[in-house]
From TrEMBL:
Subunit details: Homodimer.
Location within or outside the cell: Cytoplasm, Nucleoid
Protein name: Nucleoid-associated protein GXP69_07210
PANTHER family: NUCLEOID-ASSOCIATED PROTEIN YBAB (PTHR33449)
Major localisation: cytoplasm
Amino acid sequence: MFDMMGMMGKMREVQAKLKEAQDNLQHITVSAEAGAGLVKATVNGQRKLLKIEIDESILNANDREMVNDLVVAAVNNAMLTATERAQEEMKKHTSGLLPNIPGLDFGNFGL
């Protein structure tokens, strides 16, 4: 016989774990570089850009397009790494909560 009350309790537990994991994503910080460290971007697990650092040596350069490209590359690298770390964190908090159902993946939940 299907235990509806037990299933509802399990879903509440899953929701609480997901919320906790999402809240923890703000504490994950990831930095990435471009141009051999000339540009550095730092983002958190919620994919929010926290900081951009640009080496002074390229600020005086006449190649504005290069600076723009390096900033974009650094931010994209940091976002990709942050997304991967956030997915790992979500999976860690949700593993074992529900039976293994093909196609059900909480790793991307809220990302």
